[in-house]
């Protein structure tokens, strides 16, 4: 029997094995984390260069099993999903992200320097125990995790929901009302059109003390960013939703 098959959700005291990091606005946390982690020489070279001129890094989580690298450059059909997306962020907002692909494991000490985390794929996956502990810590401290299911309510979703039960015990994904701040700016979103596909007409999230810390969609925004065939209205809204997500994550 596998370790995951017998694992039970961690108790609260197990999650807080390290001193709790102080909660702060996420933009402040991003600046603080980059400075602190950088001072110990833990930041990858790409992030160290980005932090001088660009204020935001879109970090993709690598995990065991599945296809964590879905839609990346060399695997996709139009240059890589986050490359295309980050170019649009630069074109339409004052945020100046480093345009490129940045991959990190959740138990890497440098994770504190990446307050915006993205995880995607089609297939089943699992986070290791060390990654569970690390994600629990950084999410409670102010990081933001965006889960984007490439397959649409399949094995990726089941893995995500299961592991969130270990990362944030006692929580569950809940449907976000269209009145949520996430859908208000910079683009007003009144109706979810989908991404590469439309599985649900809503997005889901988990809040920690009133702050949206985890966002999830079954609609596969990444494939729409990457260039998969879908309606242009869906593709355009996929970019708009992504930009709203980034702006929300940096401002709340």
Q: Can you walk through the features of this model?
A:
It is a single chain. By secondary structure, this protein is an alpha/beta fold. It has one domain: Domain of unknown function DUF4159 (Rossmann fold), CATH 3.40.50.12140. Helices cover about 40% and strands about 15% of the residues. It has 9 helices and 7 strands. The chain has a 7-stranded mixed β-sheet with strand order 2-1-3-4-7-6-5. Helix 5 links the parallel strand 1 and strand 2. It is globular, with a radius of gyration of 17 Å.
Q: Could you outline the blueprint of secondary structure elements for this entry?
A:
Elements: H1 3-6, H2 12-15, H3 26-39, H4 45-53, E1 59-62, H5 81-92, E2 102-105, E3 116-121, H6 129-141, E4 144-149, H7 155-167, E5 174-175, E6 204-208, E7 211-217, H8 221-226, H9 232-251
Parallel strand pairs: 1-2, 1-3, 3-4, 4-7
Antiparallel strand pairs: 5-6, 6-7
Report a brief summary of the structure.
With 252 residues, the protein is α/β, with parallel strands linked by helices. Helix content is 38%, strand content 13%. The protein is built from nine helices and seven strands.
Q: What characteristic shape results from the CA principal axes?
A: globular
Q: Could you give me the name of the CATH homologous superfamily?
A: Domain of unknown function DUF4159
- Average pLDDT rating: 82
Helix % is 25-40%
Task: Fill in the CATH topology.
Answer: Rossmann fold
């Amino acid at each position: 029997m596998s370790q995951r098959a017998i694992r039970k959700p961690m108790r609260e005291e197990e999650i807080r094995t390290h001193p709790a990091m102080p909660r702060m606005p996420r933009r402040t946390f991003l600046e603080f984390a980059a400075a602190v982690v950088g001072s110990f020489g833990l930041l990858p070279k790409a992030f160290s260069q980005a932090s001088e001129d660009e204020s935001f890094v879109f970090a993709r989580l690598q995990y065991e099993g599945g296809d964590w690298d879905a839609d990346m450059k060399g695997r996709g059909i139009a240059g890589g999903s986050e490359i295309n997306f980050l170019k649009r962020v630069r074109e339409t907002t004052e945020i100046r992200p480093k345009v490129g692909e940045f991959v990190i494991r959740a138990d890497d000490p440098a994770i504190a320097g990446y307050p915006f985390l993205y995880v995607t794929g089609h297939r089943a996956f699992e986070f290791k125990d060390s990654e569970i502990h690390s994600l629990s810590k950084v999410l409670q401290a102010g990081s933001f995790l965006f889960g984007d299911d490439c397959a649409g309510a399949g094995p990726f979703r089941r893995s995500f929901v299961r592991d969130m039960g270990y990362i944030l015990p006692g929580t569950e994904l809940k449907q976000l009302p269209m009145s949520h701040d996430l859908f208000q700016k910079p683009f007003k979103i009144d109706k979810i059109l989908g991404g590469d596909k439309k599985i649900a007409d809503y997005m889901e999230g988990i809040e920690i003390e009133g702050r949206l810390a985890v966002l999830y969609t079954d609609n596969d925004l990444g494939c729409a960013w990457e260039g998969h065939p879908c309606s242009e209205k869906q593709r355009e809204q996929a970019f708009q939703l992504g930009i709203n997500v980034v702006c929300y994550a940096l401002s709340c």
